[in-house]
Design brief:
By secondary structure, this protein is mostly beta strands. It contains 1 helix and 27 strands.
Length: 345
């Protein structure tokens, strides 16, 4: 039986929003009026953009090195996911609602990130994550927590033209919160376990088991593929990072625990509050960057879970997708309506 979680923030000296939901909804940021959320629009107004800094990255979030802001149909808001494409283009998945409406904004490579296009406005509802294949085709997984329908994947060509939709319900999958893509074009979709599909959307197999015991997945809220043959899972509920061998489908290791310390996630002490890691990525050396929204940081960890450093995100708990730029190693962090460009640790 799935457990209930309460997505809440323990904020001092100010009213807080508390929402009782099932464990999926707990992954959603809660709206807060407290200063702890770090209103980027207010605190960063008038500061220079990415082109004004020779390093094109921030040593601290207050440096305000950001992907250029966009407007209208191309705007960045409620950022759910980011990926770098085959030519280092940046794909940003935005979402607003309910009722949910999502779209993909495509930006050119660093350092300028010039606007290329946006697409998906007429097709995407409650989008959760996206992947980009070697040919520039984009797949977006959509899963409505309240709709009761099977998850679906919408596929777009490199120009943003809709191609087709396939249903991601193989192997009994009824939830979908994250995606990854391996070097053979197979798609991994994370929910209560990790499901694998071929490039045409045919179910292949799954890995992991759902539960709260050691070795089990609470909620695969974030996925990243490792070219060495592993899939890494950000476990939002159990405060773990899991490593799976895709050849054997077995777990290699898991690490992490609850707390505010190095290598821990979700520093809140309330046992009914769940706010663990929800996004992660690997750099060129194989080290892991994982978000920790409750503690307002991104941590760098070794493949064995050894703490290597952290980036403070200035108090905001809207710490979303984390992606490492493939050439310069800068770490891109989605923060609701902005993408911060952080220098690698």
């Amino acid at each position: 039986m799935r457990w209930l979680a309460i997505a809440a923030l323990a904020l001092s000296s100010c009213a807080q929003d508390i929402v009782a939901v099932d464990h999926d909804d707990a992954a959603e940021p809660v709206t807060h009026d407290d200063a702890r959320t770090g209103n980027l629009d207010a605190t960063m107004a008038g500061l220079p953009d990415a082109t004004a800094n020779a390093s094109n990255c921030s040593r601290r979030i207050q440096d305000n090195i950001l992907v250029p802001d966009q407007t209208g149909m191309n705007r960045l808001t409620g950022i759910r996911s980011m990926r770098f494409g085959p030519n280092r283009q940046l794909y940003v998945l935005s979402r607003e609602g309910p009722p949910y409406h999502s779209w993909v904004t495509v930006l050119g490579p660093a350092p300028n990130h010039a606007l290329i296009r946006s697409f998906g406005h007429a097709k995407l509802g409650a989008a959760q994550d996206l992947v980009v294949d070697s040919g520039g085709n984009v797949s977006v997984v959509e899963y409505d927590l309240n709709g009761g329908a099977d998850p679906v994947v919408h596929v777009f060509d490199p120009n943003g033209t809709f191609i087709r939709t396939w249903t991601a319900n193989g192997g009994g999958q009824d939830e979908a919160r994250s995606m990854a893509l391996d070097t053979q074009g197979r798609i991994y979709i994370g929910g209560l376990v990790v499901f694998r599909y071929d490039p045409q959307g045919n179910f292949i197999d799954s890995m992991g088991a759902w539960g709260s015991a050691p070795g089990r997945i609470g909620l695969a809220r974030g996925l990243a593929f490792d070219s060495r043959g592993f899939v890494w899972v950000a476990d939002f509920v159990r405060n773990k990072v899991h490593q799976f061998d895709i050849s054997s489908r077995s777990q290699v290791t898991e690490f992490g625990s609850r707390g505010p310390g190095p290598g821990q996630f979700d520093g809140n002490e309330d046992p009914m509050v769940v706010w663990g890691p929800s996004q992660l990525d690997l750099d060129a050396s194989g080290a892991i960057y994982a978000n920790d929204p409750f503690v307002s940081r991104v941590q760098k960890l070794s493949r064995q879970g050894v703490f290597l450093g952290e980036m403070s995100m200035g108090g905001t708990m809207n710490v979303g997708p984390v992606r490492v730029e493939p050439m310069n190693g800068n770490v891109y962090v989605g923060i609701d309506t902005a993408v911060a460009i952080m220098c690698p640790l």
